[in-house]
Amino acid sequence: MEPLSLVESVLDNLPVAVFAKDANDDFRFVLWNKKQEQITTVKASKAVGRDDYDLFSEESADYFRSVDKAVLKRGKLLKVPEEIIEGKDGQDIHLRTVKIPVIEEETGRRLVVGISEDITEQVQARAKMESLNKNLLETNRELQETQLQLIQAEKLESIGRLAAGVAHEVKNPLALLLLGVDYLSDGIDPDDPNVDTILKQMREAVDRADRIVRGLVDFSSQRALTREPVKLHAVIDEVLLLVKHELTRSNTTVTVEVPDDLPHVFLDLSKFEQVVINLVINAVHAMSESKKPTLQIKAHSKKLDGVVKNQGARKYEVFRSGDPVVILELIDNGCGIESADATRLFDPFFTTKATGVGTGLGLSVARKIVQLHGGELQVIDRSDKKGAIAKLILPTKIDTGKVPVSSKSSK
Amino acid sequence: MARKILLVDDEAGFTQLLKMNLEKSGDFEVTIENDSMKAITTARSLQPDIVLLDVVMPGMDGGDVQAQFQSDSTLTNVPVIMLTALVDSAELSDGAVAQSGSSIVLPKPVDLPLLLRVIDEATGEA
């Protein structure tokens, strides 16, 4: 074994590359440790006494020289976060380097000492991670697009189910209009007190038909998730207009206790109507055997309390204690939820309805829409076991960090 | 003497305009009942010559109301015409009427000349 000085021994066993250049001798290398040999694949015996232009490409050498001069000019340490040299087989080697200006005590030589760490693997891992992350984002975007398509498909299904009822609701004002036309077509007697009433009723009928048709058109529109501040009461009014026929036919009494002064909720109106329509129709179906079907729609605002991370309402990592929310409840007096079904309620295609009555997509899509709003949907049995409660917890402020950003919907 | 019509429908505007149309000729006297739950009471006191009955109504639907009439000895022979948007006029040929049990069913919107003709036939005035 060749005897080495302590310093030489330490230098050659360091896990980092160390080199030094003599600024008084055209920046020729005077030190080149073992690790530097491994990284550059140039032996110390070949490197010492030569400069960067002898060992590296002109472009690299120009760059190293400019850094060396800058270090000497500054007179203090300089960190180079990442520099690239060409490896043996043409592959890039990424280095993190620190360069230090030194004046040698014994000789007075001005040296530039460099310490380099090979970070190639880290850089490659980072690039790979960035690529994976990009793929993940793309997959997530595709997933969201698919979700929006699924939501739209379920909505079309809802429209199909509502269509007969909506047609019935439009026929009523049409029937009134026709009666008005019949009455007036015999000639208008200016002294007839009925004429004013008839014209007023006809105008109201047109407005009513227009509202119903417009409601259906707005509801069926296909858009990306667009949230805006909305009064919950307005949503409930629109929904009740679209499901009026179903409620009347099933003889369902509806009570609405949604205060006008509730804080605005940030909703995509058409998608949120889809949720409430779903819940109302579910309640109507659940109450088909009830003697006096009654649906209570209630809302109140509060600050969430006692919500602990990963517990209770925090399970979707949506809410924290103190978050202002609006809680909307639809309480029916129907058959309630069989305990065996409770865990499967939100499973796609799970339904307890007869074939042809429901696809089993309603609740799973409803919950997805609520989650896209940063909210939560729970469906639970009433504590008195006399029906079920659909409970919607909705944030009253937008936190973009919590709400998934939707992509454009595809046609 | 004007024939007495009982008109049972929850749509107040519709009943108001139908009453105006039917009473225009002076042949009829129309009583409106917008609450189907009260239809039987109103019918008992009115003893109408004919009943025009909506089908989809809150409270009691037209079928239930008709069943009440049929089980009442004073009303069981009163002819009933159902008016409903559930039947589409496009499904019936011109001037045709549908039957539901002993009731005649006419689609809404109502074809007034057809309704008058059916009323005349049902009340024996044709």
List keywords for this structure.
heterodimer; A: 411 residues; alpha+beta; Beta-Lactamase; Heat Shock Protein 90; 5-stranded mixed sheet; elongated; B: 126 residues; Rossmann fold; 4 helices; 24% strand
Structural description of this entry:
- The complex is a heterodimer of chains A (411) and B (126).
- Chain A is 44% helix and 21% strand.
- Chain A is of the alpha+beta class.
- Chain A has two domains: 6-118, PAS domain (Beta-Lactamase, 2-Layer Sandwich), CATH 3.30.450.20; 130-395, Histidine kinase-like ATPase, C-terminal domain (Heat Shock Protein 90), CATH 3.30.565.10.
- In chain A, strand 11 and strand 12 form a beta hairpin.
- The relative contact order of chain A is 0.08.
- Chain B has 126 residues and is an alpha/beta fold.
- Chain B has one domain: 3-Layer(aba) Sandwich (Rossmann fold).
- Classes of the chains: A alpha+beta (411), B alpha/beta (126).
- Chains A and B meet through helix 6, helix 7 and helix 9 of A and helix 1 of B.
Short characterization:
Chain A is α+β, with helices and mostly antiparallel strands. Chain A is 44% helix and 21% strand. In chain A, helix 10 (269-286) packs antiparallel against helix 12.
* Overall pLDDT level of chain A: 86
N- to C-terminal separation of chain B? Answer: 15 Å
Using the 3D structure, state the CATH architecture of chain B: 3-Layer(aba) Sandwich
Portion of residues in beta strands of chain B equals: 15-25%
CATH class of the largest domain in chain A: Alpha Beta
Poorly predicted parts of chain B: none
- Label the CATH architecture of the largest domain in chain A: 2-Layer Sandwich
Per DSSP E runs of 2 or more residues, the count of β-strands of chain A stands at 12
Overall, the morphology of chain A is elongated
Task: Specify the biggest β-sheet of chain B.
Answer: 6 strands, mixed
Secondary structure tally, helices of chain A: 12
CATH superfamily of the largest domain in chain A: Histidine kinase-like ATPase, C-terminal domain
Main interface pair?
A: A-B, 26 and 22 residues
Strand/helix succession of chain B = EHEHEHEEEH
